[in-house]
Design a protein that fits this description.
This protein is of the alpha/beta class and about 240 residues long. The protein is built from six helices and ten strands; from the N terminus they run βαβββαβαββαβαββα. The protein has a five-stranded parallel beta sheet, sandwiched between helices. It has a three-stranded mixed beta sheet with strand order 3-4-7. A two-stranded antiparallel ribbon has the order 9-10. The longest helix has 19 residues. It starts with a strand and ends in a 12-residue tail after the last helix. The protein binds adenine. The site of adenine has 13 residues, from strand 5.
C-alpha cells in the first residue's frame, strides 16, 4: 500500500480528480491511499496566514515555512529528513525541479511507501522547506503553472498507474511510450475500414512476429518525427 498525501492551499481543486479509471481502481483495491490536506489548517496565527511578503523586497508573496513544517511533522512524524521512515519521499512541485521522466515515476512506484506532495503557489515557497524537508524537487515541464496542483495530479497519476497490480493487464505498462526509450506505436480497432480509411494490412494477418516488427518500426518513425532528442544510445541513428 502506497500512502500519498497532498499539501495545498486549494484542497477543493482536487475535487474528484482521483476518482476515475486506474487511480479509482487502485484506491478501491487498497493499493494506494490518497489524502488531500489544506496547508491553512496547519497555520498557527489567528488569520491562518500561509504566505507573507518576501525578504529583500519584490513582487508577490512567499509561502511560509512553519505551516508546511507542522504538516510534515504530523504526516511523517518528524521534520528531520534524516529520520524519515524508509520509503518516505517529500516532493516539492516547482518549475525549478528536476524534469519528471518515466524513470522517476517508475522509481517512486517501486520504492516509495509514503509520498508527500507539496504544491507551491505564488512566487515561491520559503527555501528552508527545500533545504530541510524536501527529498525531491520535481518539475513537470519547462513552463510555469500558477501553482503545483496540476503537477501533483500529473505525478500522482504517473506513479499510481505503475504500482504493481494497478494496471488491468500486466503488460500494458511495458509498451508505454518512454518505457523502452521510444514513443508508443499507433493503434487501431474495429471497423477495419472507417470512412474509406483502412487499417494497415499487417495488423489483420495474425503474424505476430511481423506485427511486432511493424510496431517497432512505427514507434521509431514516430519518435524520429516528434522526439528526435530521444534517439540516442540504442536507437541513436540520428
Ligand atoms: N509549479 C509551477 N510550475 C510548475 C511546473 N512546471 N512543474 C511543477 N510544478 C510547477
Amino acid at each position: 500500500m502506497l500512502r500519498l498525501d497532498v499539501l495545498t492551499i486549494f484542497p477543493d481543486f482536487f475535487g474528484q480528480v482521483f476518482d476515475f479509471g486506474i487511480i479509482r481502481r487502485a484506491k478501491l483495491a487498497g493499493i494506494v491511499e490518497i489524502n488531500v490536506h489544506d496547508i491553512r489548517e496547519f497555520a498557527t496565527d489567528k488569520h491562518k496566514m500561509t504566505d507573507d511578503r518576501p525578504f529583500g523586497g519584490g513582487d508577490g508573496m512567499v509561502m511560509k515555512a512553519e505551516p508546511i513544517f507542522l504538516a510534515i511533522e504530523q504526516l511523517v512524524g518528524t521534520s528531520n529528513r534524516d529520520e524519515y521512515p524508509p520509503g518516505t519521499r517529500v516532493v516539492m512541485l516547482s518549475p525549478q525541479g528536476k524534469p519528471l521522466k518515466q524513470a522517476i515515476a517508475s522509481e517512486f512506484a517501486d520504492d516509495a511507501r509514503h509520498v508527500v506532495l507539496i504544491c507551491g503557489r505564488y512566487e515561491g515557497v520559503d527555501e528552508r522547506v527545500n533545504e530541510t524537508l524536501v527529498t525531491d524537487e520535481i518539475s513537470i515541464g519547462d513552463y510555469v503553472l500558477s501553482g503545483g496542483e496540476p503537477a501533483a495530479i500529473v505525478l500522482t497519476d504517473a506513479i499510481v498507474r505503475l504500482l504493481p497490480e494497478a494496471l488491468g493487464s500486466e503488460t500494458s505498462a511495458e509498451n508505454d511510450s518512454f518505457s523502452n526509450g521510444l514513443l508508443d506505436c499507433p493503434h487501431y480497432t474495429r471497423p477495419a475500414e472507417f470512412r474509406g480509411m483502412t487499417v494497415p494490412e499487417v495488423l489483420l494477418n495474425g503474424n505476430h512476429a511481423e506485427i511486432e516488427k511493424w510496431r517497432h518500426e512505427k514507434a521509431l518513425e514516430k519518435t524520429r518525427q516528434n522526439r528526435p532528442d530521444l534517439l540516442t544510445g540504442e536507437y541513436g541513428e540520428m
